[in-house]
Structure formats: C-alpha cells, structure tokens
Amino acid sequence: MLRKLTFFIIFLCVNLNAQVTQEIFESFKLQERRDVRYYFPEDYDKEKKYPLIVVLDAEYLFDQVVANAKFYHRFHGMPPSIVVGIDQSKQSIRFDDCAFEPDTGLPSEKGKHFFEFIGMEIIPYLDLNYSTAPFKMIVGYDITANFMNYWLFKENSLFNAYISISPTLAPEMETRVPARLSAFDKQIFYQLIVEGEKNDDTAKILAMDRAIKAIDKESLHYAFEQYEGADPISIASYGIGKAFDNIFGMFKPISPKEYKEQILTSENPVFQYLESKYQSIEDLFGFEKPVELNDIMAIYAATRKKEDVESLKPLSDLCKKAFPETMMGFYFEGEYYEQLGEPKKAFKTFEKAFAMEEIDFLTKEMALEKIDALKADFGY
After folding, report:
1. Percent of the chain with pLDDT over 90
2. Domain boundaries in the chain?
3. Which of 62, 121, 183, 200 is least surrounded by CB atoms within 10 angstroms?
4. Using CB atoms within 10 A of its CB, is residue 257 exposed (0-12), middle (13-18) or buried (19+)?
5. What angle do CA 19, 60, 148 make, to 5 degrees?
6. Are the CB atoms for 144 and 88 separated by under 8 Å?
7. What DSSP letter does each residue of 39-105 carry, written as one string?
8. Which of 79, 84, 49 is CA-nearest to residue 65?
9. Which region holds residue 233: left if phi is over 0, alpha if psi is between -120 and 50, else beta?
C-alpha cells in the first residue's frame, strides 16, 4: 500500500503559489522519504482529464516546465496539465537514483528501485487521486535524461512523450533507444535537445540521432534540436518550449499556414479535416477537446473558398452542439439549404438563426438580410 506523509506546502513562485505544493513522499520501494513537487492547473476540474508530466531533476527543471505548461495552455498551445517533479539534488542523490552498470548499461539496484518508485508509486498515486489523462510525458537532464530511456525497454511504454535534454548516455544506449522506438506502434514523441558545445557524449548522441531519423514510422514523432549558443547549464531554457511546441502542435487552433497548406490543398471534404484533427487529439491525449471557434471559422471560410456545400451540413450540426445558444449552427444550415436550391427550408432555418444570439461575425442583421432576400425572390 502506498504511504504518503505530507509535512508542508510551500510557495515556489509568485505566479504559481496557489497551484504548487511540495510534499514528502514516503516510498516503500525506496525505503526512504523523497521530496516531490506538484503543479495543478488554476482551473483544475475533477470532471476533466489532464495529461501528466513527470519531471526529473526537479530543482533544476520543475519551474521551467511549469512556466512553459502555463504559457502554452494560456495561448492554446497545449491542454492544461498536471506536473509532478522529483527532487534529486540533495547529497547528489540523482547519481544513485540513475546509476547504471558500466558493463551492461542497465540500471543499478538502486536505479531499479527508483524506476519502480516512479512507475509503481508516484504515477499510480496521481492516477488514483486526480483526474489524469492517459497521455504521460517525462522530462530529464544529463544522467536523468538517460535514465528515462529505460521506460522504452518495457513492452508497453509508460510514457507517450520523452524530452531528453543533454543526455549522458549509458553504454549501447545510442543503438538501444532507436531499436526500441522502432518497435512501438503506439504514438511516441521523442525530443532530443543538446547544446552546441561538444562533450564526451556528443558522438554517441549524434549517432543516436542519425539512427532515430532513419526510422520510417508514422507513429514516431522525433525532433532533434541543437542550440549553438547554449551551454550545458542554459540548454534546458533553450529547449523545453520548443519541445512543447512539437509535442502539442496538433492541439493548437488552425493557423493561417495550416489553412493554406493543408486544408485548401486537400482533395477531401473540408469538414473531414476538422473531424480528423479532433479525433486525433482524442485518440492521442485520451480526452475530447472542445471545438475552437477559430477552427470552426477556418473550416467555414474553406467551405466558401472551395465551394464545398456538403461540408456545411455537418459543420452546422457541430455548431449546434458546441455553441447551442448562438445562431451559428442554424445560419450555416440555412446557407446549406440556400446553396442546394431549397429556399423554403433555407427561409425557415434563417428565421431560427435570427432568434438566437449573435457570435463572432454572424449578426441578426445578416440573418435578416438572408430572410428578406428569400422573401423578395420567392415571396415567402
């Protein structure tokens, strides 16, 4: 049974005070107490699901990860997430936690217990007590970046996303990681971030990069970022934001570039793009994302640009569910009937739109203009 002893709550950052707690977690696997930090979104709601981000070397990385999580969530770059950080700096305990056998490159005895502490105590505790989504990410630096690769050695990876910052690689890791990544059919994000300065691990890291790039699998989302201006200390600040941008890219609203290069150029129905985007988000993150008004307007603009009348009907049905108090759904449906050449249905539908709330560029005056035009043309 998990045993957890909470001694105090601390305030770590002016902007995070009500959402960050620090606890002493009594671990059965480690037979010791460990300092653990948690961040919960300001608008945490137990009825919703939240991705979980595990941060190793928390004294160094936790605040940076939380700051990026808050920033990207606020500007729609990622879903609100729960972040848990494991402190490892006291008495250099990180070297014991993440030690590996020099001949095999596999975790030492203490490393095995630390592995179980995270996978069998910390994460189950959060899954049991908080509303976590299936999507899980881990972040590590230096020796802890190497350690997190051991979850790839399991038949089913516990994590969906890995952010490896300037790793110190165990023997054979440069071949083992690519081999394991190529074995998975599930969606895996692997972000490898390094500084420009060369060190003893640079050759192995570059070899691993080449091997991973050679893997041809749609389920693998790999990015290698090398920052020439970064040193071993500053590299985390350079890389975390970019990694979040890569991992949570599909969660963003449709951008002008996406609209021009993917939606307008596709031969498929316009609405299918929106449907596929949101289904992919649900499949990957394990929860349904509310449809963005921005995305609806982008799809509506594309239906007009491509004269895709058939996409207007499912778009109108979606709007009635997503924005039920507004005129959007009935207005789009009215246009659908109008373009199909069914003026009577269009007239009645625009009347319904006129009776509802305005939204974005859609106004009652626009609905009234449609109604008046149909009256003039068909005498309704």
Report:
1. 86
2. 20-251, 256-378
3. 200
4. exposed
5. 95
6. yes
7. E--TT--TTS-EEEEEESSHHHHHHHHHHHHHHHHHTTSS---EEEEE---GGGTHHHHT-B-TTT-
8. 84
9. alpha
List strands edge to edge, sheet with 220-227. 20-27, 32-39, 82-86, 50-55, 132-141, 161-165, 188-195, 220-227
**Architecture in CATH of 256-378:** Alpha Horseshoe (1.25)
DSSP string covering 151-170: GGGSSS-S-SEEEEES--PP
Please state, as a whole number, how many other Cβ atoms lie within 10 Å of the Cβ of residue 307.
7
Measured distance CA(57)–CA(50) in Å, rounded: 22
pLDDT at position 76: 75
pLDDT (0 to 100) of residue 380: 61
**Which fold, 20-251?**
Rossmann fold (3.40.50)
DSSP conformation class of 263: I
Amino acid at 219: S
Contact 380, 347 (CB under 8 A): yes
CB 22 within 8 A of CB 12: yes
Amino acid in the structure at residue 309: V
* Higher local confidence (pLDDT), 16 or 344: 344
Instruction: Name the helix (H) or strand (E) containing 113.
Output: helix 109-117
Hey, which residues does 161 pair with through a beta bridge?
137, 189
